[in-house]
Structure formats: C-alpha cells, structure tokens
Amino acid sequence: MPELQPEDAKLVTLARSTRARTGAAEGAAVRDTDGRTYVAASVALPSLKLSALQAAVAAAVSSGVEGLEAAVIVSDGDAVEQEGLAAVRDLTPSAPVHLAGPDGALRTTV
Known about the structure:
Elements: H1 6-22, E1 27-32, E2 37-41, E3 43-44, E4 49-50, H2 52-62, E5 68-74, H3 82-91, E6 97-100, E7 106-109
Parallel strand pairs: 5-6
Antiparallel strand pairs: 1-2, 1-5, 3-4, 6-7
Helix pairs in contact: 2-3
C-alpha cells in the first residue's frame, strides 16, 4: 500500500483523535476543495444513526462545501461503508476515500 500524501495523513490524525476523544466506533475527516477540514464521529441515537463519514460530509455540506479533495475513515472495519462512500461520491465522484485502522495504518483507498 503506498504512503499517504502529507495532507491526507493529517486527515488520518484528525479522524483518529475524534474517534478517541468521543469513544465512538468510527472517526472521519474530509477536506474540501479550499483546504478546510471537517471531522465527525459516528452517531448512534435512537432517532438518528450516521456513520462517521456521513456525519463529516454532512458537516461539510452544511457549511456550504460543494466539493471534496479527500476523505478518511478510521474504523475497525475492513471496508469503507457504502452509505458514507455514497455521500462523498455525491459531492465529488473522484475524491479518494482512505480507510485506516485505529492505529492509523492505511488499509485501503477507494
């Protein structure tokens, strides 16, 4: 697996710290086309369930973002969950989505 670019490695750090701070199953970070970042953890309420990636994309969109450069999800999972990936693809079909483990090691990029 190739190494992440420095800006994408920063997204991993942000996603890991969000996951650790909240104790959530997942943490995610996205970078918009202006270089701003948005982070989120998974949400599990009785009335609302969002993956971390969905929540990060929602935070970006609610701030007026129209495109993403890259996204990262930190999870124990072996694959990027489809709903979060679809949310990224709704904004920017070509944006790389990196999956890293809780230790920050890159597992895959889609």
